[in-house]
Protein 1
Amino acid sequence: MWTSWITGMLTGLALIVAIGAQNAFVLRQGIRREHIGVVVAVCMAGDALLIVGGTSGIGAVVTRFPEALEVLRWAGAAYLLWFAVRSFMAAANPSALAEQAPRSKHSVLATAAALTFLNPHVYLDTVVLLGSLANQQGPDLRWTFAAGAVAGSVLWFSVLGYGARALAGVLHSPRTWRWIDAGIGVLMMVLAVRLVLH
């Protein structure tokens, strides 16, 4: 039983830890100390929902209707490009951490949800891949594997979001934020291009 749980957690971590749009956003919000509890909660709940859905067999439905992933692919690419433009605009006019205008909780919540649910790779990783791996554990252990994968997600987003808060004091320089925003913009553009070309 514990072997399935640990395997689920390590597999979930291996898929979630890769740097992507969602992780970059969680890191940025953690550094800014802005609504990080909401961001972490949305990311954890989204992953848990999708992992449970995949374990329940939704992965087979997604595989049968690839056009759903195609719509998500284009919507996700458009959203990532918009996010990249915003990051480049922030990099062109950087400000210190304390000087940046705070975003509303609603705006942060909407961004976290979009970065979670408009990325087809999230569905492939959580619903299809983790769901398939969970069901390979057999009827007795599939939910143990899924629980481990969910635990991996909870661990990762908690460490990423709240661990980033420790960096906030170091990142008061507008010059540092210019590099952070430019880096996030480049990452978002690369991810958008990869989505379009995939």
Note: The chain has a mean pLDDT of 80.
Protein 2
Amino acid sequence: MILNGILLICLGILAVPSLLLSRKPEAKELLDKITPYQGWIGIMFCIIGIIRVIRCILSLDLLGFFPVYWCLWLATGLVAAALGFLLGYGFIQQYVLSENKKAAEKGAQLLDRLRPRQGRLGIAAIIIGVLYIISAITGPVPVL
């Protein structure tokens, strides 16, 4: 579970490179090395996020016992899916949406709605990643 938090923090940093570069200008070299793989990383996180949201909804009964943990789980999936879609849109459009013109239009509309929120989603990913790590260390607290 700690690894999930770390990966979400890395995804947030990849989505908001200006935040990292303002604090550590020497990180530009590292970000330049990662940029060619950004599309694949995005697709991977988009798929993981979608699976997480589906599993979270299927485990709706946990909401009554572990509400904070369940909400954190859902937020993790939603943010990962949204940022993964944003970062991997080029590949998604090339390999998935290119076959269907209507799906390509809807994908472009979704991209237009999410693009202005990329910075906020990146910061949210970093915060949720930190909370996820704290939750993994302390463990979920049941409601009695």
Note: Residues 50 and 81 are 6 Å apart (CA to CA).
Protein 3
Amino acid sequence: MRDKIGTQINNSQNLAQAAKDIKELLDQLSQEYSSTAMVGVKAVEEIEQKPKLKDRVVNALKEAGSEALEKAVDHPAVSIVIAAAKGFIDA
């Protein structure tokens, strides 16, 4: 039972950290670009260049699912990031 609880806590922390990182990145890019699509594309480019962030996003997506990640981030461009992260998993 303890392992299951530990896994749930770890998954929750991974989701929270990934969501925080993505949200900060999207908010920063939103100041530079007015188009939601452009914000999403630039965010994906940045995530691809940062292996630790990319791993965190992929792991959060695997562990929590796309709906949970989308709700945790709450930004219009997050769906673009999630779609790309699904592509990272398949690659």
Note: The first helix runs from residue 2 to 32.
